[in-house]
Amino acid sequence: MSLNRDQINSIAHLARLSLTDAEIPVYQDSLSKIVELVGELDAAQTAGIEPMAHPLPGLAQRMRPDVVTETDHHEIYQRNAPQVEAALYLVPKVIE
Amino acid sequence: MHTFTLAELAKKLRAKEFSVTELTKSLLARIAASQPALNAFITVTAESALTQAKAAESSLASGKAGPLTGLPLAHKDIFCTAGVKTSCGSKMLDNFVSPYDATVVEKLAAAGMVILGKTNMDEFAMGSSNETSFYGPVKNPWDLKLVPGGSSGGSAAAVAARIAPVATATDTGGSIRQPASLCGVTGIKPTYGRVSRYGMIAFASSLDQGGVIAQSAEDAALVLEAMAGFDARDSTSVDTPVPNYAATLDAPLAGLKIGLIKEFFEKGLDASVEKLIREALKVYEKLGARLVEVKLPALPLSVPTYYVVAPAECSSNLARFDGVRYGYRAKDPKDLMDLYKRSRGEGFGAEVKRRIMTGTYVLSAGYYDAYYLKAQRVRQLINSDFKRAFQEVDVLMGPTAPDVAFALGAKASDPIQMYLNDIYTIGANLAGVPALSIPCGFVRDLPVGLQIAGPHFAEAKLLNVAHAYQKETDWHRRIPAAFTAEKLS
Hints:
The structure holds two protein chains of two kinds.
Chain A: H1 5-14, H2 23-38, H3 74-78, E1 84-85, E2 88-89
Antiparallel strand pairs in A: 1-2
Chain B: H1 6-14, H2 20-38, E1 41-44, H3 46-61, E2 72-76, H4 103-110, E3 114-119, H5 153-160, E4 166-171, H6 177-183, E5 186-189, E6 209-214, H7 217-227, E7 257-261, H8 271-286, E8 290-294, H9 302-317, H10 336-347, H11 350-363, H12 368-392, E9 395-399, H13 415-419, H14 426-431, E10 435-443, E11 446-453, H15 459-472
Parallel strand pairs in B: 2-3, 7-8, 7-9
Antiparallel strand pairs in B: 1-3, 4-6, 5-6, 5-10, 9-11, 10-11
Helix pairs in contact in B: 2-3, 5-6, 7-15, 9-11, 9-12
């Protein structure tokens, strides 16, 4: 199966990736080949087989007591932020 | 000093043949001298290494030293290191200074190891040749025109060139074992959940596992024991005691039942590589092991299964890189959507974008059942194959990679050819079982790796089996010609 230009644009939008015009045919080609590769799975007989989400079945999600364990580290965390003001992360205006 | 294994270095430091500072300085000089040609490191932490070396000397002098005190180590740049750039090989994190240590980093620092720096890797661990790194490819120390494998290519090349005696690494589909094979070193991917993933930048969370690349199985045993163990900060960390891996290294192999994976010898395997694998098996027979052929019929589907599961999990994990809280941000975004899209479009490299888009596609509405759910069912079949095999045999053996190292650029433009490099390694990740690669000879002067896999939590057995071979052979002691001299020019 081969993916068209519109499909690549739509996938890129869902993935929140800007692509240049030059990138689109490259991904059209390689994603089509990958879809073909994974298409080999169609031949496998999987009726009644339980999907495996995790390599350690039976491992229960651990719970911890509902108490505060984390302390405030915003100063050190925000040192990596591109734009911060008054301890808030800044982004372009969202609400007009 | 560079030719010694960790086990030998530990003895020599105690015998005062040289000091931790002398050893550290000698390796830092080797790293600096090799960097232009090899490109194995992204960051070298020379200053803190020398401080750690001094502290290790005091521990040794006061008799408070542990088995790893003063032994130098490099970390793959996927492990967060407090106060040090942690890039994951990506432009996206080129400006990221980790505010905290990964559990693995914390544990090995507590064991007294001296951290030399952070090794180069494929971007976000996505690649099998190290060519996807934002910092340029690592070269193979055996031939600088060739790739070292990936994604832990920097760690494998550093250990092979003896510019670091040991290095941490991670393996999602073969990223420890394949570069270990291509560089002629020993690499172990433990059982899923054995080593904490806390602070290990996520690629595919149901497959990712941290491990070690070392000069020998004995060295890997020492470091793995210090790295492994339960961690409440990793929700899939397993609360099972860590055995003393060193204690069982010399257990006799008489009666060991080795399964040869039939599917691995059928097609696509280079004939000279196959010959060396069969010779290695003869060594095991001489040691009293018995060979039986086993069939894992679903295993040939591991590559397509992986290329649904891994990209799906990657697209979800990498959604966190949004240009807001940390990492790369595009200049002058016109609105929030533009900020997200261009920060990601400009910050990620071509292969990472390819995997994110593949994952987005297979998870998108209308395709989920056909791809993701289907792949999870096939994953179950592969898992059952391994389970069945381990009811019959103690370990499975076969090649690690279909061929020796290939030329830089040879497969870079064809993702499918690149993905097929991991055809023999992916199965262990899908089933979550431990597997390692050890050097077993040379084809056209390039190293070949023998892969050994075992049931869940059989690391001690794997290391014992690998060590037995390394006592009979010296492939693991070979050093590439360009790196044999102590002082590199």
